[in-house]
Amino acid sequence: MASINLAKRALRKEVKKKIAALTSKEKFHQSHLVANKIIKSELLKNSERISIYVSTDEEINTTTIMEAIFNLGKTCFIPRYSFDKIHMDMVKLHSMDDLERLPLTKWNIKQPSLMEARENALDTGGLDLIFIPGLAFTKDGKRLGRGKAFYDTYLGQCCEKQAKPPIKVGLAFAEQIFEDIPTDDHDIVLDHVVSCDSVSNDL
What we know:
Distance between the termini: 34 Å
CATH superfamily: NagB/RpiA/CoA transferase-like
Radius of gyration: 16 Å
């Protein structure tokens, strides 16, 4: 276990350096290609309740995908993190205007206030599809997160509360794709990983 944790830590450092070296133009280009693959997919069309993360500059930009979710008349949920309690839930986002009005946390992530009442996905029918951020991925669905286990924990809750778990999709820059990455037994395996030059499985 100790050796796996050390390997994860080293890989996180490596990936962060690779992403930091990307220009804004390259990030925009890769994000555009990834978003187009998602928007054209049957997976998006066939899902009604969708969770998507609000991207930071270190991640594939999700704004275009979010816009498509609303344009298709789907129900959109976004993460709301409590870093003090290491807890995350998925709460309803009403529109792109709603997104613009959200406050920034001290971690520079837009999300509704923890005190604001919002529809919680797991209380009202669960999720069909969930887009999951990460630092490194393999084409067969392995994922390395940032080490807090927010998504591993949340997906465990989905399995407990939903008869059918959501389809799990990772979005990645080409620089985040590896042949193999260190994982533990509790690490989730994604159904699809989408980058600008590859899709792990048909969408």
